[in-house]
Structure formats: structure tokens, C-alpha cells
Amino acid sequence: MRIDKFLKVSRIIKRRSVAKEIADKGCITINDRIAKSSSDVSTNDTIVIKFGNKTLTILVKALLDTTKKDDAQKMYEIVSEDYEHDYRNE
């Protein structure tokens, strides 16, 4: 499954077009390799997504073509969620 579709179906990112844009900017890695929007994701892959000052690391648990809202979180496990603090604004 493509990374942009996985992020949309799992509801980590709400729109596939936004997931594609983030991936193509080099803000997503799969197993420590920079991913493009067309990069494939498999179960047990580790995905790191950088959103501004937030870095989200997830483990892929399942690949589903469609999901209901309640089932979306079964597709991944959050490994870590880190925030960079901006000290310049203090």
C-alpha cells in the first residue's frame, strides 16, 4: 500500500493530498529511508512523520483498504510522539 493512502485510511492525516504533499517534501521516513508519496508500506514497518515541531513515530500493524473510524487505530501503534520546544519565543 502506498504511504499516502495508508496515512489517509489510518486517519493519521485527514486528506490523501496532504499526506502526498508531506511525503514529497521529505518529512516522512519508512525504516530510516526518506519516503515519497508512492513508497510502499508493509506490516511491521516503522514510519517517522515530522509535522512542524512534532515528530510522530508509528509501527504499522495492519494494512486495510478501507476502515471505519473505530478500526483505523488498529492499523498502527504509536511508538513515540516528540515535541521540539521553541525557546526563541520566551
Automatic annotation (TrEMBL):
Q: Which BP terms does GO give this entry?
A: rescue of stalled ribosome
Q: Which Gene3D superfamilies match?
A: RNA-binding S4 domain (3.10.290.10)
Its domain of life reads Bacteria
Q: Which residues form the RNA-binding S4 domain?
A: 1-64
Keyword flag tRNA-binding: yes
Q: Which InterPro entries match?
A: RqcP, S4_RNA-bd, S4_RNA-bd_sf
Keyword annotations for this protein, in alphabetical order, are: Protein biosynthesis, RNA-binding, rRNA-binding, tRNA-binding
Alphabetical list of Pfam families matching this protein? S4
GO MF, one term, reads: ribosomal large subunit binding
Q: Does the keyword Protein biosynthesis apply?
A: yes
Q: Which family does it belong to?
A: Belongs to the RqcP family.
Which function does this protein serve? Key component of the ribosome quality control system (RQC), a ribosome-associated complex that mediates the extraction of incompletely synthesized nascent chains from stalled ribosomes and their subsequent degradation. RqcH recruits Ala-charged tRNA, and with RqcP directs the elongation of stalled nascent chains on 50S ribosomal subunits, leading to non-templated C-terminal alanine extensions (Ala tail). The Ala tail promotes nascent chain degradation. RqcP is associated with the translocation-like movement of the peptidyl-tRNA from the A-site into the P-site.
Q: How does it assemble?
A: Associates with stalled 50S ribosomal subunits. Binds to RqcH, 23S rRNA and the P-site tRNA. Does not require RqcH for association with 50S subunits.
This protein's name: RQC P-site tRNA stabilizing factor
